[in-house]
Specification:
With about 425 residues, this protein is of the alpha+beta class. The chain has helices at about 55-70, 150-155, 165-170, 175-190, 205-210, 215-225, 250-265, 280, 285-305, 320-330, 390-395, 405-410, and strands at about 1-10, 15-20, 35, 40-45, 45-50, 85-95, 100-110, 115-125, 130-140, 145, 190-195, 235, 270, 275-280, 305-310, 335-340, 360-365, 370-375. Helix 1 runs antiparallel to helix 4 (about 175-190), helix 5 packs across helix 9 and helix 6 (about 215-225) packs across helix 9. It starts with a strand and ends in a 7-residue tail after the last helix.
Length: about 425
């Protein structure tokens, strides 16, 4: 599970911001929405609100950059356009095997170097006081190289290339301590999935459906699809023989590969009133998005992963988005986590759905992105209680992070022909 995300000088974000899933245990409502791991209380679901272009997507983009860096995959990092500082700073605190760790890195967009890394294990006592045990620091700017008081490894940190992060530039097989760092960091990264509901991929749905009932994810995915009020009796994979005629000569191997891939996708089958139909060619956009989402939700719940969704309400009915949140916020789910951006004000429900510490806002002022939690609003300071009508408060602008478009004036100032 993700505990904190730290971001500085990254795309639209200039000053450092932090998004936290730490639960405020002074809030007594919905205790089943919280997991307790190694002394840390962590919310199972977190919603991020805000107007367009306020930085919500860049928060998720930063998480994806961290995950892809740890997995040695292509990553997108760009400094904030309003600063001359070429160094982007990204960090994350997370759980792994019921332990808590933090990892921070700094990447120079000027020369493509990783100029700083710090990895530590965190712990909290019974009173919530936190301490950090440093595992390694590699700071090529400040000249600090330490690896847990191990001189040989500390010397190694200063000699390896900074073209990539440490676990990929040093021979980890030679050093068990470094190999363990790699196992933890890559293990965490593999437990995080980031998707965009505007264009949700179907590759996981295909993989799970092909596994059939032997895969518990397949069973859960099918149940979720059938329960989503989509008029689908069943969902499965049916192998199909598909023939295509190439419009122009192409290499045979490329053509065969395209045919196989297309036939595979057409094998995703939804059953309507007993009739088997190719889902991708028959089902609506919303249904196909729900099918894709169901595969990632099932994967997260069964494998105890963190699922991060941008624009969760894209083409989905508001009751479906509430149902998706409820799949994570319950006493059955212990370790799977959901973090998402949304514009769906109906989810601003602290009476039946969320705790105040599960709702966050992104706002932009003077080109600076600000993140804050609904838990920052109290009855004493702002008159905001857990049983307040959050939708009405948000509409009135009490909670901030609300656009104020004056679209009619644009029409009034434009000459429009009535002929």
């Amino acid at each position: 599970m993700i505990i904190d995300v730290r971001i500085k000088n990254f795309f639209s974000i200039s000053d450092e911001v932090s998004l936290s899933t730490r639960a405020d245990m002074r809030i007594k409502r919905f205790p089943d929405n919280v997991s307790r791991i190694a002394g840390y209380d962590i919310v199972k679901a977190l919603a991020l609100y805000g107007p367009n272009n306020a930085g919500k997507t860049n928060i998720l983009r930063a998480l994806l950059a961290i995950v892809n860096t740890l997995l040695r995959k292509p990553f997108a990092v760009n400094r904030n356009i309003f600063t001359d500082d070429p160094v982007c700073s990204l960090g994350v605190s997370f759980t792994f095997e019921k332990r808590i760790f933090s990892y921070d890195m700094r990447f120079s967009c000027l020369n493509g170097k990783f100029v700083y890394e710090k990895f530590a294990e965190l712990s909290a006592d019974e009173y919530g006081n936190e301490s950090a045990h440093e595992i390694f620091v590699r700071d090529s700017v400040g000249g600090a190289y330490r690896f847990n008081e191990n001189k040989e490894l500390s010397d190694l940190l200063g000699s390896v290339s900074d073209d990539n992060i440490l676990i990929y530039t040093a021979n980890t097989a030679k050093y068990p301590e470094l190999e363990e760092c790699k196992r933890i960091l890559t293990g965490f990264a593999e437990s995080v999935t980031v998707i965009d509901m505007n264009e949700p991929p179907v590759d996981l749905a295909l993989e799970i459906a092909k596994n059939g009932p032997a895969d518990p994810r397949s069973v859960l995915m099918t149940k979720l699809i059938k329960s989503a009020d989509l008029e689908i009796d069943d969902f499965k994979y049916v192998k199909r023989d598909v023939t295509f005629r190439s419009p122009q000569p192409i290499r045979e191997s490329m053509y065969d590969g395209a045919v196989r891939a297309a036939a595979d996708l057409l094998g995703l089958t939804s059953v309507h009133n007993g009739k088997e139909l190719p889902s991708l060619s028959y089902d609506s956009t919303g249904t196909k998005k729900m099918i894709s989402a169901a595969s990632y939700i099932a994967d997260a719940l069964v494998r105890k992963k963190t699922l991060i969704i941008d624009e969760i309400d894209s083409s989905l009915h508001f009751k479906l988005t509430r149902g998706i949140v409820a799949l994570f916020d319950n006493d059955v789910n212990k370790y799977a986590q959901l973090i998402f951006t949304t514009h769906d004000a109906t989810l601003l429900d602290c009476k039946k759905l969320f705790r105040k510490d599960q709702i966050w806002f992104a706002a932009k002022e003077n080109d600076a992105v600000e993140l804050y939690s609904l838990a920052d609003f109290t009855a004493e300071r702002n008159g905001v209680r857990s049983d307040s009508d959050m939708i009405e408060l948000y509409k009135r602008g009490v909670l901030g992070a609300l656009p104020d478009p004056d679209l009619f004036s644009a029409l009034a100032d434009t000459e429009v022909s009535n002929e």
